[in-house]
Design goal:
The chain is about 70% helix and about 0% strand. By secondary structure, it is an all-alpha fold. A hairpin with a 4-residue loop joins strand 2 and strand 3. A three-stranded antiparallel beta sheet has the order 1-3-2, with no helix packed on it. It folds into two domains: about 80 residues, no CATH class; about 150 residues, no CATH class. About 0% of the residues have low confidence. It has eleven helices and three strands.
Length: about 240
């Protein structure tokens, strides 16, 4: 852990970045009069037709996400962390795989059992195998880079290694995936093990492999009603028929 003043600075930074991301995901549409909407028409892509509502969550996606992403990138670059310590090489790969093998296998068994019990098992579909393709893996590798290199690293700097930082990062990313039931369940289970593995044996490649496997099984075992969309936050509400 860092010195008290450094920890306070890190905590403020972490809360601001985390809060902005949550805000971007949960800003609802702002309904305006036709004249007000016309005056804002220069904001490309933010006007939803035919109703005069400005979709502020799109504003969040188009402005807040890129700004916070650039700040995270800046923070990672200026810290000049060693690639091996950051988990970007093959160092710790074997240990990380051993730590993840049990939780990943258990997660697969649970998901397959649920799918079989509820009649939603669909492992023979082409879409299932496509989720194991390299292009899918690269996306999950990029996600884990952001999660572990920034959020987990910052949580360790603020709360130290162990239960407190693991509870924070697991709770935050579970909250981030609400109200999507499938993603919320998957993240609540997987994030604890991914973050714990990174703290004990940092290796993004191994964590991304576990992420890819659990994600593939999750989307082809749980009932479709549990996974109506890949979206989260207000976008999920917009696209689902639940509300």
């Amino acid at each position: 852990m860092e010195a008290p003043e450094q920890r306070r600075c890190r905590l403020r930074e972490l809360l601001v970045v985390s809060g902005l991301i949550l805000l971007a995901l949960w800003i609802p549409p702002l309904h305006l009069t036709s004249e007000q909407a016309a005056n804002l028409a220069w904001l490309h892509g933010l006007i939803k037709h035919p109703s005069p509502g400005v979709h502020l969550w799109r504003l969040g996606e188009q402005i807040i996400f890129p700004v916070t992403g650039l700040f995270i990138l800046y923070s990672l670059i200026t810290e000049k962390r060693d690639w091996r310590q950051a988990g970007l090489t093959l160092q710790n790969y074997g240990k990380a795989i051993r730590l993840l093998a049990g939780p990943t296998l258990l997660g697969v068994v649970i998901l397959v059992s649920l799918g079989w019990a509820m009649g939603s098992l669909d492992l023979g579909a082409d879409r299932f195998w496509k989720k194991l393709y390299p292009n899918t893996f690269l996306g999950q590798y990029a996600q884990q880079m952001i999660i572990q290199l920034y959020f987990n690293h910052r949580a360790m700097q603020v709360f130290g290694k162990g239960t407190r930082s693991l509870l924070w990062i697991t709770g935050y990313f579970t909250l981030l995936h609400l109200p999507n039931p499938a993603l919320t369940i998957g993240v609540a289970y997987g994030m604890w093990f991914w973050a714990r593995t990174y703290q004990k044996a940092p290796n993004i490649l191994a964590i991304a492999c576990s992420h890819m496997i659990l994600s593939a099984f999750l989307w082809h075992t749980l009932p479709e009603a549990w996974r109506p969309s890949l979206t989260v936050g207000w976008r999920f509400i917009e696209r689902s028929n639940w509300f």
